[in-house]
Specification:
- By secondary structure, this protein is mainly α.
- The chain has 2 domains: 57-252, no CATH class; 254-331, no CATH class.
- Helix content is 71%, strand content 1%.
- A two-stranded antiparallel ribbon has the order 1-2.
- Helix 3 (44-69) runs parallel beside helix 7 and helix 8 (196-213) packs across helix 9.
- The radius of gyration is 20 Å and the shape is globular.
- The relative contact order is 0.18.
Length: 331
C-alpha cells in the first residue's frame, strides 16, 4: 500500500508564482522590521511585530487542527499558557535557564496534550468544541488556585530566560529568535501537510468513517497532530512570556482561543501562510482602532464580518485561489 502514498517531498512552488513572490515579500518585510525600527527610532515596532509573529505561531498550530484535520479546538490557548508558566514557575524558583524552560514547555505540553487528547479526540463536532473549552476552563481555575504564583493576577518575571548564546534582554535578539521560530514553524507546517501524515489528516477531515474502513488508525493520527499542535503553541507561550515578562491564567481564557480561531479564519483556513496574514491584519487593525476609540471591539468585529462575507476563503486563501488559477490558465 506504501506505493500509493504521495511523495513526502512537496512539489516546489515556481519562483515566478504570485504565491512565492507574495510570501517572500511578506517574510522579507518581517525580517527588515529591526532595520526599520533602528532607522525610524521606533523600538515599539519590535514589540508589536514580535507579538504578531507569536500569535501567528500559535495560530499556525491551531490551523493544523482546524484546517487539515477538521478539529475546532476552543481550548488551544491552554497550551500557550502552559508554555508561559513553564518559564514563570522555574524563574520564580530562580531557575533561569532558558533551554530548561523551553524543554519543560514542549515536553509538558506534549504530555498534557497526550492525556487530554485521548479524551477529547473520542468526540467530534460540537462535543469536541465544548470539551476542549471545558479542559481550558479547568486549567484556568488551576492557575487561579496557584496563589504562590500570583493566582488570578498572574506572575511577573524579573528577567527573560537565559537562552545562551542569545541575550533575550535585547529586543533585537529576541525579535530575531521569534522570527526564526516563525520561519521554522511555517516551513515545518508546509512539509508536514504535504507529507504522509498531512494527506492522512486531510482524508480524516474529508471522511473519517471511510478512512477507518480502509484500516487506518485515525485516533492515532489525530492524537499525533494534536500533540504536535500543542507543542508548537507552547513554544509560542514560551516566547510570549519572554516578550511580556508575564504569565497569567487569563492566557487560557476562551476569548484567547477565540482570537486564534478568528486569526486562522481571517487569513485562510487550511493554508500554511494564512495564520501569519490573519495575525498581521487582526492585530494591526486592533492597534489602529484602539487609537480612535475605547470601544474598538465593535468596529473590529464589523470589519472581521465584512472580510468573512467578502472573502469567504480568508484573505490569503482568496489570494492563493486566484494565484493557482492564474498559474493553471496563464494569459
Amino acid at each position: 500500500m506504501a506505493e500509493h502514498w504521495p511523495s513526502v517531498f512537496p512539489e516546489a512552488v515556481p519562483l515566478r508564482s504570485p504565491r512565492f513572490i507574495a510570501v517572500a515579500l511578506l517574510l522579507a518585510a518581517f525580517g527588515l522590521v529591526p532595520v526599520a525600527a533602528a532607522v525610524l527610532d521606533q523600538p515599539f515596532f519590535l514589540s508589536q511585530f514580535s507579538r504578531i509573529m507569536i500569535y501567528a505561531i500559535a495560530a499556525c498550530s491551531l490551523n493544523l487542527l482546524i484546517g487539515y484535520t477538521g478539529l475546532v479546538s476552543f481550548g488551544h490557548a491552554m497550551y500557550m499558557a502552559l508554555g508561559a508558566y513553564a518559564v514563570a514557575i522555574p524563574a520564580f524558583h530562580e531557575l533561569g535557564n532558558g533551554w530548561l524552560h523551553l524543554g519543560l514547555a514542549v515536553a509538558g505540553s506534549a504530555l498534557v496534550a497526550a492525556g487530554v487528547g485521548l479524551v477529547v479526540l473520542r468526540t467530534s463536532g460540537m462535543g469536541f468544541i465544548m470539551i476542549t473549552l471545558a479542559f481550558a476552563q479547568m486549567f484556568f481555575f488551576l492557575g487561579i488556585s496557584l496563589k504562590q504564583y500570583g493566582g488570578d493576577d498572574g506572575t511577573r518575571l524579573a528577567a527573560p530566560s537565559a537562552l545562551a548564546p542569545l541575550d533575550l534582554a535585547s529586543p533585537t535578539q529576541r525579535y530575531l529568535l521569534v522570527y526564526a521560530v516563525l520561519l521554522a514553524v511555517l516551513y515545518g507546517s508546509w512539509r508536514l501537510v504535504h507529507a504522509r501524515l498531512g494527506f492522512a489528516l486531510r482524508g480524516i477531515h474529508a471522511n473519517e468513517r471511510r478512512m477507518k474502513a480502509l484500516g487506518m488508525p485515525t485516533l492515532g493520527y489525530k492524537l499525533a497532530i494534536y500533540v504536535i499542535a500543542a507543542a508548537i503553541a507552547a513554544v509560542a507561550g514560551f516566547l510570549l512570556a519572554n516578550q511580556t515578562l508575564y504569565a497569567s491564567p487569563s492566557y487560557t481564557a476562551w476569548t484567547v482561543s477565540g482570537e486564534l480561531i478568528v486569526i486562522v479564519i481571517l487569513g485562510g483556513v487550511g493554508t500554511v501562510v494564512g495564520p501569519l496574514v490573519g495575525a498581521l491584519v487582526f492585530l494591526l487593525l486592533e492597534e489602529w482602532l484602539a487609537g480612535f476609540t475605547t470601544h474598538w471591539m465593535a468596529p473590529l468585529g464589523l470589519a472581521i464580518v465584512l472580510v468573512v462575507l467578502l472573502a469567504q476563503r480568508g484573505l490569503y486563501g482568496n489570494f492563493r485561489a486566484w494565484a493557482l488559477k492564474s498559474e493553471r490558465d496563464p494569459p
